[in-house]
Structures are given as structure tokens and as C-alpha cells.
Design brief:
With 272 residues, the chain is α/β, with parallel strands linked by helices. The chain contains ten helices and ten strands. Helix 4 runs parallel beside helix 5 and helix 7 packs parallel to helix 9.
């Protein structure tokens, strides 16, 4: 069964963080520190165990977004790669220590200024003790994971069965990997990726198709799922409904990275 929920802020304890999960949601995502620092917050063992128990008892999930500075792909900066690998391992170990690792997940940007092979080498040397999801990019600069071929190559090289993909709808649209306004294009992309361990970052886009811009928007208020060129809003949301139904059928979890204050997107994800 799929779970849906928003990105939230980290609180003083991990237990207090997961307890922010809205009543009508089944998961949240957060950072475990600054999104621009390798440093990961250290949590008391009691806090981790209580968090795991709460996740199990409530049947909720916790996703953690790894810091943006982690770059396992870099070809020439070994110190940067090592710092990133240590930071990522700290997150994975933290989530495993909750005692409920399968109700957690870590999302990692694939990296830039390097190669897919470098990322694979680093990941295959790590202990993947809780699910890890590698996120596609919007095609900016030298960032990796901009198309189906790069993502498939990455997945084929990783040894751990706990590694999957995080498909960000805004990134996919901006990179030109998937025209998210087209139901046919959405289905074609997922069939080509053929990755059963997948989650969705559900974001509308302020950037055009193939713009190579990573600019998120509320659902229905960006260039993907708002009415354009004389179409009705109902017509504009046809591909949204296709994505929702595909994800639910595959039992993929959905995270709102740009949640509206009243979380109206959750109602949009409900099936009558």
C-alpha cells in the first residue's frame, strides 16, 4: 500500500519529528541537519528506539533527504567523496538503529562532476542497512541522473537490493526525461526504468519542459498540472491522475516536497 506525506522540519528529537506526520498522511520527509552540511544530527539510542516503535505502531514511514553537498560522483576530489560517503553512512546507520529500517528511506542526489561508475563504486563499498533511493536530476550542468539510460546504468551496477529510485516529477520534466503532462510519457518512462523499488517526489514545476531548471511549485500551480492553451483544469490533471494511479498500483510512496499549507494535494491523491 502506498503512503503519502509532506516534507517537514527536523525537531529536537527524532520522535517529535515523526509525530508531526499529519493525521491524513502516512509518511514524512526531513533532513537530519543542514541540507548544506555533511554533519548529521546524533540522536540518543532511546529516541531512535522510541521512533522505531512509533513508526511500527502507527504504521507510518520516515524518509530522510541526504544533504545536497554529498557528491559520490566527483572524479577529482577524494576528500569530498569520502566526507559524503561518511555522511550518507551515518544516515543509513541512524535509520537502521530505529529497529524499523523498512519503514524508513534515505533519498540521495546522484552527484555531479564525475561518473556513474564512481557512484556505483562508493555505494557498493557501503553498508546499505536501510532503503536508499537515488534521485533523478533536472539536467542542470554536470549533474547525473538526467535520463532513463543513466538511471538504469546506475541501478544495474549497484549490488544492494535495498537501493531504488526516487523519481522527482519536477526534475523529470525539467530534464526532458518525461513530459509529465502526458499520461503516455509517464507510463513509458516507468516501464523503461523497470524499477520496483521506487518512490515519487511529487512537485509541479515553475520551469518549462526541457528547461533544465529545478524550480518546484505547488501541484496545479506550475507548468505541469495547470491549465494551458485553452484546456480545462480537469484536462490538465489527467496525467496527474495517471501518475497517482500508477504509483498506487505499484505501491510506491509519494512525498510532497513543496506541500501547500493546507495540504490540499493529499485530497487530490485520494481515489473516489
Amino acid at each position: 500500500m502506498s503512503c503519502c506525506g509532506p516534507h517537514v522540519s527536523l525537531q529536537k528529537t527524532l520522535l517529535a519529528t515523526v509525530k508531526q506526520t499529519p493525521e491524513n498522511c502516512q509518511c514524512i520527509q526531513c533532513f537530519l541537519g543542514s541540507n548544506l552540511s555533511y554533519n548529521i544530527r546524533k540522536f540518543a539510542e532511546k529516541d531512535l528506539k522510541e521512533t522505531g516503535k512509533w513508526l511500527k505502531d502507527s504504521n507510518k514511514k520516515l524518509f530522510v533527504h541526504a544533504p545536497y553537498v554529498i557528491n559520490l560522483a566527483h572524479s577529482s576530489n577524494e576528500e569530498m567523496v569520502a566526507k559524503g560517503a561518511n555522511s550518507l553512512q551515518s544516515i543509513l546507520d541512524c535509520l537502521a538503529a530505529t529497529g524499523a529500517p523498512q519503514q524508513t528511506g534515505t533519498v540521495l542526489h546522484i552527484g555531479a562532476n564525475g561518473t556513474i561508475e564512481n557512484v556505483i563504486e562508493q555505494l557498493n563499498d557501503m553498508t546499505i542497512s536501510a532503503p536508499l533511493y537515488l534521485e533523478n536530476c533536472a539536467g542542470e550542468g554536470s549533474k547525473l541522473g538526467r535520463n532513463v539510460d543513466e538511471l538504469r546504468k546506475l541501478m544495474e551496477g549497484c549490488d544492494s537490493h535495498s537501493i531504488g529510485l526516487c523519481i522527482d516529477t519536477c526534475h523529470s520534466y525539467g530534464a526532458g526525461m518525461t513530459d509529465m503532462r502526458s499520461s503516455e510519457a509517464i507510463i513509458k518512462t516507468f516501464e523503461e526504468l523497470d524499477c520496483p523499488r521506487t518512490i515519487i517526489h511529487l512537485n509541479d514545476s515553475l520551469g518549462d519542459y526541457k528547461s533544465k531548471k529545478d524550480r518546484h511549485a505547488f501541484i496545479g500551480q506550475g507548468l505541469i498540472w495547470s491549465a494551458q492553451d485553452g484546456e480545462t483544469q480537469e484536462e490538465a490533471l489527467e496525467s496527474f491522475n495517471t501518475l497517482r494511479d500508477y504509483a498506487f498500483d505499484a505501491e510506491w510512496d509519494i512525498i510532497l516536497e513543496t506541500p501547500s499549507p493546507d495540504l490540499y494535494e493529499i485530497d487530490m491523491l485520494k481515489v473516489d
